[in-house]
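F.,

This is the one I mentioned.
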């Protein structure tokens, strides 16, 4: 109440009804509300008191409570339901975290002196971000004391809220220093409550005197190591809309974001009680040194109860999958040992599907290990009932800390007038521990999901491999296997083209188009172009960056080479391989046919068909018995050794080879008595097994030499054939010349005979022609010729045809071209 009987305006109670109790304001916070008179004057009460006036008097208000029982003036504060979206309640507070780069001069990075002078021309200089850690120095301003701000309050004094070390110092021209505006933002490790001993929200002169004597950091038990040198702003669940708007204005006017800002992260945790799900949302803003502000987000959800308390069916599936995995690993190890005994380990290693098997085992065991880690993290998870992080605001219990009823409530139980983001150390630490648990849970869920997802994909590949035995169901694997070599070379060619265009795109458009800001981004963008081209996402930026001509050449050449050529080559490789596989499976039985045959075979086994039917199982047992009667193990071993020894021989100088038979003959000729002075031992009494062992020990596989001999023989035969062809061509040339001479002789002889006969019959012909009349003409067409010998040495022959026509003297012979 002010002097003159005028009540102060109650700002706290006009915000909204969420700040009131029972829909109206409490009397101790706003006189004149709650149904009481507008102003209560104590003079009337004091005038009735005849004895000495004391500081306080006890009284009872029977209208609002039973006689002898004190009424509840301020009920206990209960947490409010703050829902981000329906059914998703906010947990604790919204956290805005910032990390700040240290300042350093840019001058050493510059080379030209004129550019250095230009940079130094600014009075404050130009600072470059440092990569050596982050800056944890308090900065910014408290706009409550700055007249330009919308939350300025001229009634407040900075010394009531800030110590001298928490304010800026101004030095005039004479060297005199004076305190200026208080700083607005402090790092996590800074103890903002270090001087306020009574925790009333205000600093007394005696408390200010301890400024230089009190450590500025919190106790180590209240500091989260991952948040050191991080500036955090909290908007907890107790805030109203008006208070939250004022705090946002505080951060804006107080210069929370400035030139030293490195990154800002907004964190929010919600809980959905309908499904029992926690959601952890992170929004990241990153300031690049180029001036670009990139952003990204991450959303993780997890069911704590579902992880810690799975149902019976889930537990059954887990145990079943674990047993199948152990059995599968055991069978694969057995397969490896079998291949090793067969000396086929190299073929096993070179089979790509075996690599897929072991890769699948690795990811499956990784899924089990990461799930155990996730279970351990979830078991350590805990959440408090509430997190009263901000220093100013209603408490979660009866906040009456007064010795008498008329004592004013403490400032910590009111909305903040200044220093809005002051926090309580222990609740802040508890909430940051909760946030770290959320981060650990989110990381564990992502790792487990990654292992589990890749395991499912590899399981699909293994399923395709297992269907390879059926010709129609194994068409996918058979197609890939047949096209593997061509696909390998195609991938190499595609990578070369992609790398080339990625480099060109980075240099042409990277300065403006974000999709090509670096080499990796450029390669990803070009790969996406092959699947989907949305010109609204890139065309304008790329056109402004590199020009229309450069864009058209770059875009259409890439589409022509990568899309119209390479993609179609890729499809052609697969289609060609599929056509080959399909051609080989045209007469193969389908899956249903084979299943039906298996079912009918099982039915026939149960029927009493006797000697009319032999089952597969019976046939297999008969073959096994026949195999046992053929040879014993020693005989099989000797046969194998005999076959293997024939491929080996001992090589000695002089290009001599000693095979098994030669070695047996040498040892047999040199066998005899053993003498101490002899340099050899008797081999008498040793069987073929010892000979095989010597060949195996010192012998060399001569199959490679035999292959080399075969290649040399083929090359020799090829050269010999070439020599014979050359000789044959020379003989053909000589015969051709002789044929020409004979043909010329025959022509001359024919001309002489024709002339003599023509002169004798010319008179008779004239007589006959006088009595004959021409009745038509003869047309001769040469169609083709076949079986003509090759007369030239290098190129093919050039044949022609000559036709002779008997008739009048004017008729001439005809020759083709």
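My design for it:
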């Amino acid at each position: 109440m002010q002097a003159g009987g005028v009540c102060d305006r109650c700002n706290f109670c006009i915000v909204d009804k969420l700040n009131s109790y029972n829909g109206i304001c409490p009397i101790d916070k706003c006189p004149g509300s709650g149904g009481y008179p507008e102003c209560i004057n104590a003079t009337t009460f004091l005038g009735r008191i005849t004895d000495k006036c004391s500081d306080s008097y006890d009284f009872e208000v029977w209208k609002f409570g039973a006689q002898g029982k004190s009424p509840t003036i301020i009920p206990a504060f209960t947490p409010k339901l703050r829902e981000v979206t329906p059914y998703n309640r906010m947990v604790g507070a919204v956290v805005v975290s910032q990390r700040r780069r240290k300042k350093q001069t840019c001058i050493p990075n510059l080379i030209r002196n004129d550019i250095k002078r230009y940079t130094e021309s600014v009075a404050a200089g130009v600072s470059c971000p440092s990569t050596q850690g982050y800056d944890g120095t308090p900065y910014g301003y408290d706009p409550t004391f700055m007249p330009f701000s919308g939350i300025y309050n001229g009634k407040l004094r900075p010394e009531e809220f800030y110590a001298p070390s928490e304010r800026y110092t101004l030095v005039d021209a004479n060297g005199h220093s004076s305190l200026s505006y208080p700083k607005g933002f402090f790092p996590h490790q800074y103890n903002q409550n270090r001087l306020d001993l009574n925790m009333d929200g205000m600093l007394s002169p005696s408390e200010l005197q301890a400024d230089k004597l009190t450590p500025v950091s919190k106790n180590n038990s209240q500091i989260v190591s991952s948040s050191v040198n991080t500036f955090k702003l909290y908007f907890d669940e107790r805030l109203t809309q008006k208070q939250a708007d004022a705090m946002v204005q505080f951060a804006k006017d107080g210069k929370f974001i400035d030139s030293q800002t490195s990154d800002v992260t907004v964190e929010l945790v919600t809980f959905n009680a309908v499904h029992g799900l926690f959601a952890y949302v992170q929004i990241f803003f990153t300031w690049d040194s180029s001036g670009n502000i990139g952003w990204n987000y991450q959303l993780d959800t997890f069911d704590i109860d579902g992880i810690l308390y799975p149902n019976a069916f889930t537990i059954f599936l887990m145990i079943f999958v674990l047993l199948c995995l152990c059995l599968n690993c055991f069978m694969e190890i057995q397969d490896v040992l079998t291949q090793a005994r067969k000396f086929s380990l190299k073929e096993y290693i070179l089979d790509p599907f075996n690599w897929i098997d072991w890769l699948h085992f690795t990811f499956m065991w990784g899924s089990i290990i990461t799930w155990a880690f996730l279970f351990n993290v979830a078991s350590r998870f805990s959440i408090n009932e509430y997190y009263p992080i901000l220093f100013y605001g209603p408490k979660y219990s009866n906040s009456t800390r007064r010795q008498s009823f008329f004592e004013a409530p403490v400032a910590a139980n009111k909305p903040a007038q200044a220093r809005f983001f002051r926090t309580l150390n222990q609740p802040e630490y508890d909430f940051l521990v909760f946030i770290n648990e959320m981060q650990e849970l989110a990381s564990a869920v992502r790792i487990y999901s990654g292992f589990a997802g890749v395991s499912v994909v590899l399981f699909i590949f293994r399923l395709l491999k297992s269907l390879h035995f059926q010709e129609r169901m194994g068409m996918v694997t058979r197609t890939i296997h047949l096209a593997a070599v061509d696909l390998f070379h195609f991938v190499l060619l595609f990578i070369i083209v992609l790398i080339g265009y990625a480099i060109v795109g980075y240099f042409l458009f990277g300065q403006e188009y974000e999709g090509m800001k670096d080499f990796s981004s450029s390669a990803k963008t070009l790969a996406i172009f092959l699947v989907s081209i949305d010109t609204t996402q890139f065309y304008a930026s790329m056109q402004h960056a590199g020009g229309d001509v450069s864009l058209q050449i770059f875009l259409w050449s890439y589409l022509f080479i990568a899309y119209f050529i390479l993609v179609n080559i890729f499809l052609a490789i697969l289609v060609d391989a599929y056509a080959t596989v399909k051609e080989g499976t045209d007469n193969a039985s389908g899956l249903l046919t084979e299943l039906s045959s298996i079912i009918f075979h099982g039915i026939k086994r149960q029927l009493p068909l006797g000697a009319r039917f032999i089952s597969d199982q019976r046939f297999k047992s008969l073959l096994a018995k026949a195999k046992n009667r053929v040879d014993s193990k020693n005989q099989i071993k000797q046969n194998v050794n005999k076959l293997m020894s024939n491929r080996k021989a001992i090589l000695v100088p002089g290009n001599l080879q000693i095979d098994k038979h030669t070695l047996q003959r040498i040892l047999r000729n040199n066998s005899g008595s053993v003498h101490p002075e002899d340099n050899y031992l008797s081999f008498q009494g040793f069987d073929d097994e010892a000979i095989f062992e010597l060949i195996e020990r010192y012998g060399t596989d001569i199959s490679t030499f035999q292959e080399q001999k075969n290649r040399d023989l083929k090359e020799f035969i090829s050269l010999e054939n070439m020599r014979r062809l050359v000789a044959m061509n020379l003989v053909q040339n000589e015969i051709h010349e002789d044929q020409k001479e004979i043909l010329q002789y025959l022509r001359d002889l024919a001309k002489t005979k024709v002339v003599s006969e023509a002169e004798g019959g010319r008179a008779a012909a004239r007589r006959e022609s006088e009595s004959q009349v021409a009745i038509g003409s003869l047309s001769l067409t040469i169609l083709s010729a076949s079986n003509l010998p090759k007369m030239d040495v290098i190129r093919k022959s050039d044949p022609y045809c000559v036709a002779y026509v008997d008739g009048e003297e004017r008729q001439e012979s005809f020759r083709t071209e």
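Confidence is low (pLDDT under 50) at residues 1-40, 397-412, 671-685.

Talk soon.
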